[in-house]
Amino acid sequence: MPVSGNPPPSRTAALRGLSGSLAAPPALVAATVFVVTLGVMLAARRWFDPVLFICVAAAWLFATSAFVLVRTHRNAAHANGETNASISQSALNEARMMAIIRSSMEAIITIDDQQRVVIFNPMAERVFGCSAMDAIGAPLARFIPERFRAAHAQHVAQFGVTGVSDRQMGNQRVLAGLRANGEEFPLEASISQIRDGDTRLYTVMLRDITERVKAERAQRQAREELRELSANLQKIREDEKTRIARELHDDLGQQLTALKMDISSVEQALDASAGAAVRDQLQGMRRLIDTTVASVRRIAADLRPVMLDDLGLIPAIEWLANDFTNRYGIDVERQIETGDARFSPAGATALFRIVQEALTNVARHADATLVTLSLQAKEQAFELSIADNGQGAHRTAEPAAKSFGLLGVRERAHMLGGAVDIHTAHGKGFVLTVTIPAETVQMQEIQT
């Protein structure tokens, strides 16, 4: 008997043979068993022995039994192999998933149907200032401000029933989280759910947006400060334009008129001995003064029409439309229906400047022959529209040079709480529509 712990060679060979047989195809094994069994039985009996039939039947029984045994063994081995492979693949997938969760730049928290934490990845530890050891098993409400806990629990319960969530990351309202030290912070969140047997698991992905909210708040504040500065500059410029226009109209205009009267007096005082050249020169001076007076009035009107302050917005717009037609030969159809509205000085100035800028753009860029100007009193608002039949513009086209015309229109409308809408297409004209709340442009009645 061998002294080693290994089995004898013959036994090993037999085991190998059995293993090889079990690994062989079942049909081949059955045929082999049948032939061997039949041969053994026939060797012990004669061919014409009465028990020949019994030998054949016994050989067939042994062959069938071998066939069933081998096939059963092969199926069991195959099933075990598939089960082991499935378990191995499941473990590999789980390991990959956990690696993704741990390395994610988003905070990931998984809770069960009792809203207790079962997964708390490293980014969640960093965001909430709490270790996974302390978080796992704790209720999710621990990380939610108290005033939002009831609503959040209701939302999760509703989500579990409907499978629909309105908290998708990036396009929803900002939520609030609670750090371990009691500090609240803004976050965005998305939620999903899966079933694990009879248990429902909810996975929440969180993003701390504290820095983004701070940047947005600073940007809004800077934008509002710039708008306030722009409004103040607009007011200062309007005041300066008004002062210069008044001085040109009242001071320089009157002086030129007086000079013209003096020249007329000199012409009348000259006797018949004065030469024709002197008289022609005096007439030329008078014509030059007339031209200068007209230029002064035009400049003063361009700075700020006196009638805007003296007569109001509607006469000023009428004068502006007539002056535009006289200068550029472009007809202006007017549709002005404001009822008995009384415009405030700031509102009248803003609307007049918007019309002025829109007509200037038509003259410079539109190549139009007709402009339709409409000012209508709507419900709780005034709607100003300037449309032309010019060449229009491509909405996506880049301007050849920086233009502040439309930007100025938008700023003036914004200062009054209004909105600007533009409709244009190449070859189909340009329509500028400004809607401004009535309360911001009308004269406020003093209550006594």
Automatic annotation (TrEMBL):
Gene Ontology MF term list: phosphorelay sensor kinase activity; protein dimerization activity
Residue ranges occupied by any PAS domain in the UniProt entry: 93-137
Coiled coil regions, renumbered to chain: 212-243
Residue ranges crossing the lipid bilayer per the database entry: 20-44, 51-70
GO CC field: membrane
Gene3D superfamilies: 1.20.5.1930, Histidine kinase-like ATPase, C-terminal domain, PAS domain
Top-level lineage group: Bacteria
Domain Histidine kinase: residue ranges: 247-440
Protein name (database record): PAS domain-containing sensor histidine kinase
